[in-house]
């Protein structure tokens, strides 16, 4: 999407706000990068380094404003198995509808309050929501990452270690042995109770 009009540089303090001047003359298209997403967009699911946003803003019915666009974001997150820094990319199409505050029904999905007095559209809410929906719940460096050796901590994708494999069966056997021991002890106690 190439902006039809020259985009004014976004206000670094409020990068997700765009002016609505000229909206009645036709759609407004913008493409911009949010450089500090954690500050500009509020709490996010991942430590995104930036969020690239493209939007097409146009009048909907009467006083409503419809927004459609794309977003692309990148974060570096530890693989949940091997803890290696892993690049995560999120790409999505998104849409939102802005209505005057009196016409926003609580809980209505994708509908946001339009602050008509400011003459600006605050896109932070719908962008933040989209990132929460699209971000992976957990991150793995590869689908078959073998993780770390639980004994020595070696990253198993890079080198093998000589630790003996854990044998859960042996541990269950040991627990069963403990169970037998406590049964013996209670027998001993009941013997001691006999006068
Ligand atoms: Zn991994
Ligand atoms: Zn090991």
Question: Explain this structure to me?
Answer:
By secondary structure, the protein is an alpha+beta fold. The chain has a domain at 17-134. The chain is built from three helices and seven strands. The protein has helices at 37-41, 124-134, 168-193, and strands at 17-19, 28-34, 48-59, 65-78, 85-99, 111-113, 120-122. The protein has a five-stranded mixed beta sheet with strand order 2-3-4-5-6. Strands 1-7 form a two-stranded antiparallel sheet. The longest helix is centred in the C-terminal third of the chain and has 26 residues, at 168-193. The N and C termini lie far apart (94 Å). Mean pLDDT is 83; it is low at 2-6 and 180-195. Residues 149, 151-152, 154, 161, 163 line the site of one zinc ion.
Give the topology.
Blueprint lengths: L16 E3 L8 E7 L2 H5 L6 E12 L5 E14 L6 E15 L11 E3 L6 E3 L1 H11 L33 H26 L2
Parallel strand pairs: 5-6
Antiparallel strand pairs: 1-7, 2-3, 3-4, 4-5
Task: Provide a quick synopsis of the model.
This protein is α+β, with helices and mostly antiparallel strands. It has helices spanning 37-41, 124-134, 168-193, and strands at 17-19, 28-34, 48-59, 65-78, 85-99, 111-113, 120-122. The model is unreliable at 2-6 and 180-195 (pLDDT under 50).
Using brief descriptors, characterize the structure shown.
3 helices; binds zinc ion; about 200 residues; disordered N terminus; alpha+beta; 7 strands; five-stranded mixed sheet
């Amino acid at each position: 999407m190439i902006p039809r009009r020259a985009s004014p540089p976004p206000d670094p303090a409020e990068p997700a706000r765009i002016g609505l001047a000229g909206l009645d003359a036709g759609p407004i298209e913008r493409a911009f990068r949010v450089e500090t997403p954690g500050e500009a967009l509020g709490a996010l699911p991942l430590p995104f380094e930036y969020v690239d946003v493209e939007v097409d803003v146009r009048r909907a019915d009467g006083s409503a404003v419809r927004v459609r666009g794309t977003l692309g974001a990148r974060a570096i997150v530890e693989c949940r198995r091997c803890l290696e820094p892993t690049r995560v990319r999120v790409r999505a199409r998104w849409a939102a509808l802005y209505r005057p505050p009196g016409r926003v029904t609580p809980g209505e999905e994708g509908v946001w309050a339009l602050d008509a007095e400011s003459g600006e559209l605050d896109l932070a809410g719908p962008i933040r929501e989209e990132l929460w929906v699209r971000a992976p719940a957990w991150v793995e460096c590869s689908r078959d990452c073998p993780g770390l050796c639980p004994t020595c901590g070696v990253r198993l994708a890079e080198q093998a270690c000589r630790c003996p494999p854990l044998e859960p069966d042996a541990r269950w056997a040991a627990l069963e042995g403990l169970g037998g021991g406590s049964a013996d002890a209670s027998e001993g106690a009941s013997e001691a109770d006999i006068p």
